Amino acid sequence: MPRHFPKVTLSEAEEETQLLAEKVYASALKEEDNKDALSMFTVPEDCPIGLQQAKEHELLKELALLLLCLFKALLIREKYSKLAYHRFCRTTSQFLRSAENMRWREEDEVLPDMWPSPADGEDPYCMDNIPENLNYELKMKDGIVYVYDNEEALKEQQPHDLPYPDLETFAVDLSHVLAMIADGPTKTYCHRRLNFLCSKFFLHEMLNEMAELKELKSVPHRDFYNVRKVDTHIHAAACMSQKHLLTFIQQTYKTDANRVVLENAGQMMTLQQVFHSLSMDPYDLTVDSLDVHAGRQTFHRFDKFNSKYNPVGASELREIFLKTDNLINGEYFARIIKEVAHDLEESKYQHAEPRLSIYGRSPDEWDSLSKWFIHQKVHSPNMRWIIQVPRIYDIFKAKQLLPNFAKMLENIFLPLFEATVNPQKHKELHVFLKYVSGFDSVDDESKHTDHMFSFRSPKPEQWTRDDNPPYSYYIFHMYANIMVLNNLRKERGLSTFQFRPHCGEAGSITHLVSAFLTADNISHGLNLKKSPVLQYLYYLAQVPIAMSPLSNNSLFLEYSKNPLREFLHKGLCVSLSTDDPMQFHYTKEPLMEEYAIAAQLWKLSTCDVCEIARNSVLQSGLSHQDKKHFLGVNYLKDGHEGNDIRRTNVAQIRMAYRHETLCNELSFIVDAVKSDAMNGQYE
User: Which residue windows are coiled coil (predicted)?
Assistant: First the structure.
């Protein structure tokens, strides 16, 4: 059955919602979310008995309305998740169907389709059995790639039967959720439910901690060290420790001092000449002089943090050692990554999802990156790759590299559609995409923007101004293209991609609203603690969050104030990740360092850290076959039925508690929606 994007038109009521959403957006830009206008409580907790009785009907009506709003928000996320082949929590979906008086069916569940790891002895770079070319026509319109069966269909503007997103519909849906986060009664309700979840977990710990420990002790050959863990958020350019990078530079200088490695102003330079021009000797370098570690000076200074990617402050060394596209075809960078991958393979139980950059400056970037991957043989069974797209259109526009924002989107996504439609013409890219699990959107979220993304926003072809589009503008257009691409690839029997943006590390809480609609999972999510409504929605939908407390500690938030422990207690789906080991970690196993520090500072139990590790595998881009092997054959089921304690080392008591608590919260919403009064409003 063909999949279509359900479109809506803007009604008078929705225009009012849009106006309210614009006020919320403006308030967020002015950082007024902590003031009285957006305070956590707008309904007095202690009301006189007479007044309470007089307002009882009004309060019940208020409660019913806010529960309906939460229900609609969950339906909106489910719609966008299913369209893009992203995951949506099975338990939540079952309750939503119950509220609609429909039966949930397993065959209706939509899941990402990841390419399985090559079997032992199988060549991961094999270019046999590549699908035939379809020779479809491709054209970008309004920042979204449209697919046409042939030239005639293109002339008649009859695109191939795929779901194409509609900006107006997305703007209406975004406005609904934006308006919710400023509603006083909704904030009060969500805040109280979150407090209840926290208190309930403390009670669970007091009652069941020893029983959980006893259960774990009875499991043979499984403990925290040999459960699978995935570093769900790590950047390839900083995936090594500072000591590892220093040692690699020194060893490379020993063997390749006279090798030509850099072209500078038309002059070819050897490695020795490069160091001589920098007035330094590699043997005298220390981790301190390398100066790639973040510290106090980078706190709230993202510009200084970015400079830490340059060893000894020299962009030449970054170009030589940490780039894929350079004079030596990224050989040194590939060697470092392969050493990191070897360490992961030696540990056996650790996996990583490094980010590689595609900037959108040129359509040739994809071919260059895929050739680097295959020619340098970078594949590892313990690594899946994510493509990060920096939000730096303004820099390229200032250098006159791009005429408009649509050209940047075209350079990023059109090569992917071409490789999907005609894989025989793009064999290297076709093979590389097997091991790419998703896309990320990265940059400094704290950058200010005056433009509010709405259906009135200029189309990407019309965005010719020098300033950067807002976060939500980037997010929508990335999601829209990924959604169409995933449906096309699913039709061809190819792997699909997740959308996993950096979100909520800094800046406006409205970023988290955009991600709630479009993202499979997010990285950071710190600003959820500022919005009880969003935090509760992320809990109800079980949106995965990859958190990096050590990274946040150096950039935006002190470790003691990090909400990870609080999120874990409440039941949000959180995992631990390293972000940038080169900048934030000291040991050879940065992911274990992250777990160890969190466990020590927050006194996490074995069951806690194993639950976090299990979450990391669930939210990763590993294939269905890998997850069945690592978590158990029934891992898609919720609660204790989906937990194989022999593989995860997570107590069945804990899993049963999580499932029961989530069902309890969802039942409040469903019961309200199914009531007679609510049915009338819903229809």
Answer: none
8 Å CB contact between 503 and 478? no
Q: Contact at 8 Å (CB) between 682 and 68? A: yes
**Residue located via tokens 């009664």:** 185
> Based on the number of CB atoms within 10 Å of its own CB, is 58 exposed (0-12), middle (13-18) or buried (19 or more)?
exposed
Helices and strands in the chain: count of H runs, count of E runs: 29, 13
Other Cβ atoms within 10 Å of 667 Cβ, number: 13
The pTM of the full predicted model, rounded to 2 decimals, is 0.90
Q: Which of 369, 489, 490, 357 is closest to 429 using CA atoms?
A: 369
- 400, 471 Cβ separation under 8 angstroms: no
DSSP states along 384-432: -EEEEEE--HHHHHHTTS-SSHHHHHHHHHHHHHHHHH-GGG-HHHHHH
pLDDT below 70 — which residues of the chain?
1-3, 8-58, 293-309, 676-683
Per-domain residue ranges for the chain? 1-113+167-215+661-683, 119-161+358-500
Q: Residue 531 is which amino acid?
A: S
User: What is the C-alpha to C-alpha distance for residues 532 and 525, in angstroms, rounded to an integer?
Assistant: 13
The residue type of 261 is V
The 10 Å Cβ neighbour count of residue 175 is 25
As beta bridge partners, residue 386 has 355, 438
* Per-residue confidence (pLDDT) for residue 43, from 0 to 100: 46
- Look up tokens 């005298």; give the residue: 284
Q: Looking at residue 682, what is its pLDDT?
A: 45
- Angle, CA 79 vertex, CA 157 and CA 158 arms, to 5°: 10
What DSSP string runs through 293-315? Answer: ---GGGTT-HHHHHHTTSGGG-H
Catalytic residue among 524, 585, 640, 659: 524
**Of the candidates 649, 587, 658, the residue with the CA atom closest to the CA atom of residue 217:** 649
Burial of 84 (0-12, 13-18, 19+ CB in 10 A): buried
Please give the full DSSP string across 140-151, using - where no structure is assigned: EETTEEEEESSH
Q: What is the pLDDT at residue 37?
A: 39
User: What confidence score (pLDDT) does residue 304 get?
Assistant: 58
Q: Cα separation of 522 and 505, whole Å?
A: 10
The pLDDT assigned to 231 comes to: 96
Give dist(CA 472, CA 643) in Å, integer: 36
CA distance 575 to 619: 8
pLDDT score at 452: 80
Contact present, 3 and 487 (Cβ < 8 Å):
yes
Full DSSP string of 577-636: --B-HHHH--SS-HHHHHHHHHHHHHT--HHHHHHHHHHHHHHS---HHHHHHHH-TTTT
Annotated catalytic, 524? yes
Q: Over the stretch 580-618, which tens digit does the pLDDT of each residue have?
A: 898 888 999 999 999 999 999 999 999 999 999 999 999
Q: For the residues of 378-394, what is the DSSP string, one character each?
A: ---TTB-EEEEEE--HH
Q: List, for residues 428-450, the tens digit of each pLDDT value.
A: 999 999 999 999 999 888 887 77
For residue 83, the one-letter residue type is: L
Q: Which pair of structure tokens corresponds to residue 233?
A: 């958020």
CA distance 489 to 114: 11
Instruction: Report pLDDT for 286.
Output: 85
